[in-house]
Amino acid sequence: MKKNNYNVIGVMSGTSLDGVDLAHIKFNLNNSKWTFEILESETIGYSQSWINQLKEAVDYPKNELEKLNATYTKLLATIISSFIEKHKIENLDAVCSHGHTILHQPQNGFTLQIGNLPEIATLIQQTVVCDFRVQDVKLGGQGAPLVPIGDRILFSEYDFCLNLGGFSNISFDQNGKRIAFDISPVNTVLNFYANQLGLNYDDKGKISRTGKVNENLLNKLNSLDFYQQKHPKSLGFEFVKGTVLLLIEKHEIPVEDKLCTFTEHIALQTALALPYKKGRILVTGGGTYNDFLLERIQYHLSEMEIIIPSSEILEFKESLIFALLGVLKLRDEINVLNSVTGAKMDHCSGEIYL
């Protein structure tokens, strides 16, 4: 389906479990350059019951995962249909949905995003483009991150694109190739400890700011094997649950100190991940609202200009880019870069359900 204008919805659910992000977007292609306009956007939060299920699902047996996939697909269909109805959206080319990652084990040739079952197209009565990661893993790739091709196409004026979500990832051009990889956990860990204090998250990093860095813990975090690996590399919740939290919990220190230490860890790993320390870096994702985290990143990257975009782009950039991946799939054009994921080749990934 090759044309110059597309009317689509991008749908994303991230590992920080903030909810389902939806963005109605118009794309325009003119002289080989893509532009976009975000029309309506919204985040639909999960109930506590769903948050608990999505957290626990990493340990579910196969039959329970299949049940969860079916019920989550119905939930997602209801959310998408309500968004379309609420905003009276018509004449869509497609709904482009990431689904929600439950398992991510590219080293074992496996990744699972629930909510991508074929019946979602029937339930919402729209063409659906989804399940973008599986093909890349089958081609020997990490299946992540997938956003960098969108960074290159839509945000090429920045030297770096940094996303601070459940995990952080970075994207940049180097020697004519797009390079990208996951850096470290972010809100998957920070929110875990905020929850222990009865909070959904550490607002602006105010609690982290009151803590002290535990040098012993910081050194052990920085010494984890993942940080010594070369890209391409990616992270899943398994790493948080099975490695990071186990390490932190061995240290009997106040929650405030755990938050402060992990914030310093994120900032330090962010700085270490960049091949050069000057330029302009676009920062998006929920972690951008954590003032203390941004201060610590700026401290370690004192010559970098940190740019925070509009709230729409900040909060819905991943929905925007998965919408673009869907459009590229409809056009049968490359939407995954092997320089990013490590797959055998660039390819056009995703499933189209009519």
Describe the structure.
The protein is α/β, with parallel strands linked by helices and 354 residues long. It is 40% helix and 25% strand. It is built from 13 helices and twelve strands. The strands form two sheets. Strands 1, 2, 3, 4, 5, 6 and 12 form a seven-stranded mixed beta sheet that branches. It has a five-stranded mixed beta sheet with strand order 9-8-7-10-11. Helix 11 links the parallel strand 10 (279-284) and strand 11. Helix 6 runs antiparallel to helix 10 and helix 10 (255-273) packs across helix 11 (291-300). The longest helix is centred in the first third of the chain and has 25 residues, at 62-86. The chain is globular, with a radius of gyration of 19 Å. The mean pLDDT is 96.
Identify the notable features of this structure and list them briefly.
12 strands, 5-stranded mixed β-sheet, 354 residues, 7-stranded mixed β-sheet, single chain
Which outline best applies? globular
Q: Taking all residues together, what is the mean pLDDT?
A: 96
Number of helices: 13
Work out the number of β strands. 12
Structural class: alpha/beta
Model regions low in confidence, pLDDT < 50 over at least 5 residues: none
